[in-house]
Every structure is written in C-alpha cells, then in structure tokens.
Amino acid sequence: MPPKVTVCMPVYNAEAFVAEAISSILSQTYSDFELLIIDDGSTDGSAAIVKAFSDRRIRVIRSNSNLGIVAALNRGIGEAKGKYIARMDADDICMPDRLERQVYFMDTNPSVGICGTWLESFGSKPKAVWSPPCDDDEIKCSLLFESVLYHPTIMFRKSLFDDLAICYSADFPHAEDYELWGRLVDTCSFANIGKVLLKYRLHDQNIGFCEAATQQASADKVRMRLLNKLGIEPVDDELALHSALSMWRVSADLQTLQNAHDWLSKLVLANVASGLFPQKAFERIIARRWYQTCLLSTTLGFDAYRFCFQSRLCNTLQIPLHHRFIFLIRALLRKV
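Below the sequence we write its predicted structure tokens.
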C-alpha cells in the first residue's frame, strides 16, 4: 500500500541542518508517510548525511546538477506516492505532531486543497510566532498583499496538482509558492491551522536575505496579476506604494499616509465592482493594513492617531480600548 503522506524535502548544500530536519520528520507521531528527499546536486556533505539514515520510509532522488528549487519541487510532486504532500525545507524543524494534525484536518475538511500552519522563527533573530489568518476568505484577501500560506508548513492534495495538471512556475523565482497560491485563489479552499507546527530557521542563507531583490520583483508580478483581476491597472507609483504597503515599508510622512489611505480606499471600491474577494473579509483585511500602517507612522505624532481613526477604513475593526491607548501614547511620544 502506498503511504498516505509524502513529505517532499528538496536538499541543496544543507549539511549544517539537514540531519536535524530529517530527524524531526522521522520522529512524527503520525507514521504513514514516506520522506522523499530530492538532492538537487549538492556538492557538500549533504548526501552522506542523508545516506547515514537507514529508515525504510526515506526515499532519495538525486540530480547530477543543481536545477533549482522549482525543478526539484515539481519532480518531487511527480514522484510522490502519497494522497497528501507535505512540504519541508532542509533547514527547518517539524513539531512532533505536525503531520498528525494536518492529516486529520485534511481528512475532515475535504473542500480544503492547501493547508498551512503557524510557525515559530528562530536563529539569527529573536524567536517570534508568525500567526497568519486561518479562515479561507481572509487568506485569499490577504494574498493581494502577501503570502500568508507559509511554504515550509504546507500540506496539499496531490490530486489538486494531478487533476488540474499544474506545477510550480520558474517564471517567479523565489516567490514560486506565492504565485501558485495566487493562481489557485478561485480554484480551491485554503486554511491554516492556528498552532505552531514548524520551527523556521533564520540564517544568512535564507532566500529572503540573499535574494531579496529578486524575490520582491517576483512578488510584485503576483500582486500586479491579482490587482488586474480586481479590475485595476496600477501605474508605476501605485504599484510601488502597494508593494511598500505589502512589506510594511511605508514612509512616515503625511502625504504618503494620505496616498496609502486613498489607495486602500480604491481597492475597497474595486472589490465591490469586481466581486473578486468576499467583501466583508476584504474590508477587514484592508482595515488591518490601514491600522498597522498608521501604527508604524507614530513618529508623525497625534496626526497618525487622528488620521487612523477618522477614516472609514477602520469601521470594520473592533480595536480594544487598551490597544487604542497604547497607540495614542506612542503617537504622543513619537515612538514607533
């Protein structure tokens, strides 16, 4: 009988971390899986470390040269025997119950095609919990700005890829996952499990560090495509502002804050006209983006606080009184 789950782990020159990643999979409370390791032409000691594990659930495919993450993932999906495919990176660590929880969720939610989880980052920066929305509507609305389905946490149905004949695209380097979620936004349901089930290692070789410019350019292409589906053809300045809002990098000055407000308001109206996203969820996502943008602009003083709460964009937010008080104090002290 084939295993129910294939854990797909591309490996390229990961000798410093791969043993810990493999051990975290082999120690899962759920046992009906294969660990499919795609060695993408490693030139360090990764292959020897992998070979030292004798567990029968490990299957290794090796490329003679480094073809890149997209080719490795597509090959892994094609070779996978499981009903579900779980993503795993060679430098991360799974919590022991990750597979058990995700399999149970997928079994009991047959409409969900892709399921992620919360994660905890560790390594070169202080530990932090990344807690994206769990609801399908809010996940899809958030994709207009950023990916809130964290790739190393994902489990998806192999049938989704087989039936639709889809694969990762090499045209969006270092944002291939974000592009795929955007392509599937009106095809299947998404979900996140609101529990930390993976530890995400931060180090100086992360793609977000060493390929930041390429990753942003690819992500902007995804945002542009979603904006087009919303019925908007942004000019260069608008796309730059949308990108800055997506990455929480808006300049703290009143004109930029006004421009951000006008742009977010335009998005709300565009969604009313297009019906691309569920309107109530979309307005909540826009409201949170506006609130956080103002909160990051408290160096402007009381104007940031006033500007935030005078806007209709905040109408859908239920902000606790103590959060408003903290916002006000930060604005009066002009501290971010």
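The chain has a mean pLDDT of 94.
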